[in-house]
Amino acid sequence: MAFKLMRAAIAVAALTVATGASAQECIAPANPGGGWDFTCRQVGKTMQDLGLIDSTMQVVNLAGGGGGVAFAEVVNKRNDDDNLIVAASSATATRLAQGAYPGNSMDQVRWIGSIGADYGVIAVAADSDIQTLPELLDKIKADPNSVSVAGGSAVGGWDHLKVLIAADAYGIDDVRKVKYIAFDGGGEAVTQLLAGSVQAFTGDLSEAKGFVDSGDIRVIAVLAPERLDGEFSEFPTAKEQGVDAIGANWRGFYAPGGMSDEAYQAWVDKVGQLYASDEWKQVMAANGLAPLNLQGAEFESFVQNSVQQIQDISRQIGIIK
Amino acid sequence: MDTLMSLADGFHTALTFENLLLALLGTFLGTMMGALPGLGPSNGVAILIPLAFTLGLGATPSLILLTSVYYGAMYGGRISSILLNIPGDEPAMMTCLDGYPMAKKGLAGEALSLSGIASFVGAFIATWGLILLAPQLVKFALLFGPAEYFALFALAFATLGGVSSTNQAKSAFAAMLGLGLSVIGVDTQTGVPRLTFGEVHLYDGLDFLVAIVGLFALSEVFIFLEHRHGSATGAGHKVSVGRITPPWKMVKETTPTMLRSSLLGFVAGVLPGAGASLGSFISYSMEKKLVDRKNTFGTGDPRGVAAPEAGNNAAAGGALVPMLALGVPGSGTTAVLLAVLLSLNITPGPLLFQNNPDVVWGLIAALFIANFMLLAMNIPMVGIFTRVLMIPPRILMPIVAMVSFVGIYGISGSSFDLLVMIGFGVMGWLLRKLDVPLVPIILGTLLGNTMENNLRRAVTISNGDYWTLVGSPLAIGLWTVAIVGFILPLFLSRFVKARMHERGDDEGAISD
């Protein structure tokens, strides 16, 4: 019995390897369940539903080093693989900008396209006396010690950078003075906002949404270029309050640096077609993703700019030299 | 009313064929592991983590499997205490005191079935306690700012050494070692890598599941290798059980004892860090003071069997309260369960009840179901488990080793993690030789980061003023309990430890 099972297992394994050679593969650089995993699986499923790929997208979870293990693997071992894409997001750009993938840089891979973005928000507790973003920033300007801002990422991480981008745009000279408290995830940060330990919250719209619906917190600014659609349209943007700050946690893909031009173009087209489809619009609506439609060279320069911006701020606050 | 509705939803989640099967499997394996001297609830759960992940189970099924193992081990521990006078795990230590004398009097069957009923009562009351208390504690959780959380973690560490440690210095050392290991990786407050030596695998820190399986499961295998010329643990013990139902009179006589011990055990379990050993210890001591008028405790008094068993099972349920509501484990085994939850991308704490009600209530419903299964399994079928005591380790240990390796590789697919696991296995083996408890290490590795972050958050918010750590009545209260919890065992441990050594348990890692 055991022998039979073993034979069956070997047969299955052999089959997987045989078909795996030509199948499309998506590496999620984290464990199942997170944002990168979602990106791979949701895109893989929708692409198959749309007939853009002929077999199931094989999703491989390669966790470690905040995406660094996967990045190194692609650069070192899979550099000319035409059938491989890797999920990426603002976190990838942040780590690349801050040199947190030792020995790797963004030009070692090719950037394919984005599939949407989660815009940053700045919020306060529902019973707070702060009503607008300039009010909050004035308070910080007058006495930085009086306002603690909580977010779900590390110091120098994306949630931190968003509030610094806003502070910078408002003309606060020394952004290092902004007191940021790092929590393990947005949920914990909101809990402490409600407990009154901190005065403001910086995070993504999707993580704040639940607490807005329950009436616990008030969004004072969305860091989007213009007001969002649907139920999100009631939130004012930072821009309309005179603070020219945009912070989008984008989601997208990169591919091995040695990928052939034809294969690269084919992937760019597929992601473009996916983005344009109605099916994907439904996925975006269901998951709180806002529009961000960039492919190919456009996307590459977008990532380039975002890496540059993060590097500048990180240098200002002394995270990198 | 809301609670009952949620509980009904929970039963809806739990009563699927798959989940019932997992609960049955968990309770069976748990009882078996509890019964085997050497394997306690934390080892039991640790060994089965890889299984849960390899089967690709979702969050709720994995938790149902693993908490069934936890409850099962609490039941199983008593079997070898009563029959062989060797505690199957630490919380069952106190059961030896009256259980073995009962068995010697020819009342082994009565002792087993009575302790089975006591376990059931303890677990049943504790599960209700969990239902009533956990959602309340969630509301209370908003009082916990960073400073209070820091004090709560300190409390968990201070009391963890608990009643059984040889000396508090060794527990403190183990906790420090764990805290030290937890700083490996990128510092989440500043993004600076610490102690990573440029190794990208270490940037995320050590995976605590790898550490747990290495420390608990692999070290067990190493201990066996060392003793392999010795005879198998259970071999040569021919045990006869006799009748397997307790006389009605005995049940009636011990009912007040069971109820009192359950309540006390539950409270002991809720306190972070203390866990089931403390539950059974104080239940036994209190009953002895309250009802032992003829000095029959220690000579085979049924109440002396009922008290610790009700106490330790109730404490197991109680320990789940702070884990689910605050994300701070109440015992070693719940620390392991916390690690599992985190790996499943579920953050325990105040938001768990809001974000994943299906997980919480499904789990609670599964606990009820598992408890009934355990009652059925432990009274009529107790004979099967007495036979488990005779499985030679030379068969058991290779299975443990295989499950560990395949499981960890299955989770991460990284050979680096396997090396880390072996490293932890060797470390666990060495530390057990030195009688250093392992649970504080796990707790340190698991909670070190959060504890450090809360300290730094508290101090940043107060602009560098360290007095904020004792700035609220709640924080002061927690610190007081922590200090008392650390000092008290210095006086109590002499008594308990003497008992343990009497039972010939040298390796001393069978801890909860």
Summarize the structure in words.
Chain A has 321 residues and is an alpha/beta fold. Chain A is built from eleven helices and nine strands. Chain A has two domains: 184 residues, 3-Layer(aba) Sandwich (D-Maltodextrin-Binding Protein, domain 2); 120 residues, Periplasmic binding protein-like II (D-Maltodextrin-Binding Protein, domain 2, 3-Layer(aba) Sandwich). In chain A, strands 1, 2, 3, 4, 5, 6, 7, 8 and 9 form a nine-stranded mixed β-sheet that branches. The longest helix of chain A is centred in the C-terminal third of the chain and has 21 residues. Chain B is an all-alpha fold and 512 residues long. In chain B, 72% of the residues lie in helices and 1% in strands. Chain B contains 19 helices and two strands. The interface between A and B is large, with 40 and 36 residues.
Proportion of residues in extended strands of chain B: under 5%
* Strand arrangement, major sheet of chain B: 1-2
Number of strands of chain A: 9
| CATH architecture title of the largest domain in chain A | 3-Layer(aba) Sandwich
Structural class of chain B: mainly alpha
What is the alpha-carbon Rg of chain B in Å?
21 Å
Kindly report the CATH topology of the largest domain in chain A.
D-Maltodextrin-Binding Protein, domain 2
Tally of individual domains of chain A? 2
Distance between the termini of chain B: 34 Å
Count of beta strands of chain B: 2
Q: Sheet bearing the most strands of chain B, described?
A: 2 strands, antiparallel
The CATH homologous superfamily of the largest domain in chain A is named Bordetella uptake gene, domain 1
The secondary structure category of chain A is alpha/beta
Instruction: Please tell me what the overall shape of chain A is.
Output: globular
Helix content of chain B: over 70%
The CATH C-level name of the largest domain in chain A is: Alpha Beta
Radius of gyration of chain A: 21 Å
Main beta sheet of chain A = 9 strands, mixed
Poorly predicted tracts of residues of chain A: 1-21
Order of helices and strands of chain A: HEHEHEHEHEHEHEHEEHHH
